[in-house]
UniProtKB/TrEMBL annotation:
This is Alpha-1,4 glucan phosphorylase. InterPro entries: Glycg_phsphrylas (IPR011833), Glyco_trans_35 (IPR000811). The modification N6-(pyridoxal phosphate)lysine is found at K645. Gene3D superfamilies: Glycogen Phosphorylase B. It comes from the Bacteria.
């Protein structure tokens, strides 16, 4: 039964009355949010249960996506959309003079991730359910999500993100599924009836309690489970945790999400977190397999279970599965290794050396003595296996344990049957540069899986007007089958459609302008170019290049050289310990202040750095963007995903030929993207020959010199130290990100953008082409490829949901 407006209104009244003794007139948005989310829960719960039973009965293979981060954002509207209720509920609320958007804004973002990697994991969850595959998420229920960002005097300050303060409406505590995880102590191997068995002494036992979140698939999809683990003192171990400090140490395990997205720190707590959710997840998988599926033959495990390792953070899963198979289930080593390799697969998300996890052998031996023994044995066998077949150098370069450190990427590769990169160029660089030795050893294990995005969220939820225009032109079926979006290209010459497209964009820009006014007090002109760069702040992503462009525009305007009106919008968090990134934030904020208050500039140029960029803010900014800034140093951005979201919303991309930008260009054609900058060979040439001398470039290019000098000549107030730091960085021969090398080409690309902007019709046509071709980055397509090539899944057969 489809939900009707009248039925919804009845349910709403009942919930408000039961929960709060309120009615629709008196209830606050937060009360209304609680009531509507309860109705949504009632809507999917029966189906959630049915699916779990179908899974057990059909014994179809399932994938478990292990990720230390999941970044779903808010869930109310996306669950409504996926249930097929969004329109009905929006209209029913409007009948009651209530606004769904305001009610939905009462939901805190579930920000259990840093950026692209965590967001991708959440998109995969949604997509698995929507495409009909049984996929389970396995992660950590952080008490505090990614920090809230505030600007104080232009500096970034971090505040705790206490997202659970008001309780989460989607999670279900499943205490009966708790498992125990052991840390520390000593391990002795003793002979137990001919089986060498570990005996533990003095270890600490922590209870892992799962909180399950339903992942509601779109339309006739499945309802899957995202399982997030919390750490508690086991009731039977209370005496071993006598003091508050002892207990707090256990709770600390799942207390915070590490806020660094590029630079791992070899911290003990992080290692504990990694082992904690990996061990808990694998134990619960084996419990399901041996108890619910009643399967005693572990050699068949790979027919039922795929475990995916999202970056190296869960790579200990390889050693932990070996431990469970060998120690607990008494499977011999070779058989266990064979099972493990068939079960495990691994995605790499970066080639940046500083992000490659390496754990100190001593630390690991103390915290996880048995795991360290097992990794040592995996390493030993790996070396023995290669001896005589390849050179000793290759063995030294590829082995897991080196210089007293465990190389997690090596463990992940050696223990998996599949290793993938996240865009074509990235995979190619893994194969030919970063993981070349491994590629030579195991060419068949390597494959590419270009990232994707949830078009449902980025079009249907964030941009309903554009979605309606697609309905009116190409019909509604694109909502189920994104291939159909290509038909939008047929309207390339349709003046009416092009006008509608520009009206919708203007409308979205007006909404964002209103929001900017509320948040910052700054008035921006919605008819200006909205030029957007939203992503984590990192030197390689080069928000600095955008800054130099802004300074150049400012200098032109001061000198009376005209440019089309432009509003540059940034959203970016810096890792709290990342000094350079924080300096960039300060300089951008001071530059913004200077420009926004300069009467000479008036409203020709505005620079808006919005605080606290997260999924919810992305949903406001992205539909209003005209220009999408994707300007990383070529070879450094593995894929990028904001590039895809912005494209789907009709922004035109200015891009280096990095990550998935290359595939965007392939999709839309070179006339529909502004590409510029060094190619990968030029970048590697600079590195190989140490031939990058930015000071020469600076001395020989008056325009560049003037823009760069603004950082140190007192032009920008209140940031002389930070300006100097940026200046020194740009001019150093060891500047890795080649900012000045791309400056001139970037200015040319921006000049072309200005030219195109003046040709309104052409701009709209290019925008239309970008929207049409964003179908290529539909995450459902990405998931189909993972399911087929890596996980070997079949779709679950279920009766149509009765919603
Ligand atoms: C988080 C923690 C550590 Cl220790 C290291 C990295 C991260 C992290 O957040 N990485 C991340 O977001 N990587 C990004 O992954 C995206 C999805 O594949 C890519 O699109 C993007 O290029 C990459 O930087």
């Amino acid at each position: 039964m489809q939900l009707t407006k009248e039925e919804f209104k009845k349910r709403l009244e009942r919930k408000l009355d039961n929960y709060f003794e309120e009615d629709v007139k008196s209830a606050s948005n937060s009360d209304l949010y609680a009531a509507v989310s309860a109705i949504v829960r009632d809507g999917y719960t029966p189906q959630w249960r049915r699916i779990r039973i179908a899974e057990t009965n059909q014994k179809q293979k399932q994938v478990y996506y292990f990720s230390i981060e999941f970044l779903p954002g808010t869930l109310l509207k996306s669950n409504l959309l996926n249930l097929g209720w969004l329109k009905t509920v929006r209209e029913a609320l409007a009948d009651l003079h209530l606004d769904l958007d305001k009610i939905a804004a009462a939901e805190p973002d579930m920000a259990l991730g840093n950026g692209g990697l965590g967001r991708l994991a959440a998109a995969f969850m949604d997509s698995l359910a929507s495409t009909g595959y049984t996929g389970n998420g396995n992660g950590i229920r952080y008490k505090y999500g990614l920090f809230k960002q505030k600007f104080v005097n232009g500096y970034q300050k971090e505040l705790p993100n206490d997202w659970l303060k008001k309780e989460d409406h989607w999670e279900v505590r499943r205490e009966s599924k708790s498992v125990l995880v052991r840390f520390g102590g000593k391990v002795n191997m003793v002979d137990d009836n001919g089986w060498m068995t570990p005996q533990y002494e003095g270890e600490r036992v922590v209870r892992a309690v799962p909180y399950d979140v339903a992942v509601v698939g779109y339309k006739d999809g499945l309802t899957n489970t995202l399982r997030l683990w919390d750490a508690e003192v086991p009731p039977e171990e209370e005496l071993n945790y006598p003091t508050i400090t002892d207990r707090r140490r256990v709770e600390d395990l799942t207390s915070i999400l590490y806020p660094d997205d590029s630079n791992y720190e070899g911290r003990l707590l992080r290692l504990k977190q990694e082992y904690f959710f990996v061990s808990a997840g694998l134990q619960s998988i084996l419990n399901y397999y041996t108890k619910d599926l009643d399967n005693k033959d572990l050699t068949k495990l790979p027919n039922y279970v795929a475990v995916h390792i999202n970056d190296t953070h869960p790579a200990m899963a390889i050693a932990e599965l070996m431990r469970l198979l060998v120690d607990e289930h008494r499977v011999d080593w070779d058989t266990a290794w064979n099972i493990t390799q068939k079960v495990m697969s691994y995605t790499n998300h970066t080639i940046m050396a500083e992000a490659m996890e390496k754990w100190d052998v001593n630390m690991m031996s103390q915290l996880l003595p048995r795991i360290m023994q097992i990794i040592t044995e995996i390493d030993r066998r790996f070396c023995v296996g290669l001896k005589g077949h390849v050179s000793d150098d290759v063995i030294e370069r590829t082995r897991i344990i080196k210089n007293g450190q465990v190389q997690m990427a090596h463990l992940a590769i050696i223990g998996s049957h599949s290793i993938n990169g996240v865009a074509a160029l990235h995979t190619q660089l893994l194969e030919t540069k970063v993981l070349k030795d491994f590629y030579n050893l195991y060419p068949d294990r390597f494959n590419n899986k270009t990232n994707g995005i949830t078009l449902r969220r980025w079009l249907q939820i964030a941009n309903p007007e554009l979605s309606d225009l697609l309905d009116e032109t190409i019909g509604k079926n694109w909502r189920n089958d994104s291939d159909e979006m290509l038909n939008f290209e047929k309207y390339y010459h349709d003046t009416k459609v092009l006008h509608k497209l520009s009206d919708i964009k203007l409308d979205n820009k007006k909404k964002l302008a209103k929001f900017i006014k509320e948040r910052t007090g700054i008035v921006v002109d919605p008819t200006a170019i909205f030029d957007v760069q939203v992503k984590r702040l990192h030197a390689y992503k080069r928000q600095t290049l955008k800054l130099l462009h802004i300074l150049k525009l400012y200098q032109d305007l001061k000198a009376g050289i005209d440019h089309p009106k432009r509003v540059v919008i940034f959203g970016a968090k810096a890792a709290p310990s990342y000094v350079f990134a924080k300096q960039v934030i300060k300089v951008i904020n001071e530059t913004a202040n200077m420009i926004n208050n300069d009467p000479d500039v008036n409203d020709k140029l505005k620079v808006i750095f919005l605080e606290d960029y997260d999924v919810s803010l992305a949903e406001r900014i992205i539909p209003a963007a005209d220009v999408s800034e994707q300007i990383s140093t070529t070879t450094k951005e593995a894929s990028g995903t904001s590039n895809m979201k912005l494209m789907a919303n009709g922004a035109l991309t200015v891009a280096t030929m990095d990550g998935a930008n290359i595939e965007i260009k392939d999709a839309v054609g070179e006339d529909n993207i502004f590409s510029f900058g060094l190619n990968k060979d030029q970048v590697y040439k600079y590195y190989a020959e140490h031939s990058y001398h930015p000071r020469e470039m600076y001395e020989n290019d008056a325009v560049m010199k003037k823009a760069v000098d603004a950082l140190i000549d007192g032009t920008i107030p209140n940031c002389s130290a930070e300006g100097q730091a940026l200046f020194n960085n740009f001019l150093g021969d060891n500047e890795q990100f080649l900012v000045l090398a791309d400056f001139e080409a970037y200015l040319r690309a921006q000049a072309k953008i200005e030219q195109t902007w003046k040709q309104k019709r052409l701009w709209e046509q290019m925008s239309l082409v970008n929207i049409a071709h964003s179908e290529r980055f539909d995450v459902d397509k990405t998931i189909e490829r993972y399911a087929e090539d890596i996980w070997h899944l079949k779709k679950l057969e279920v009766e149509k949901a009765d919603r």
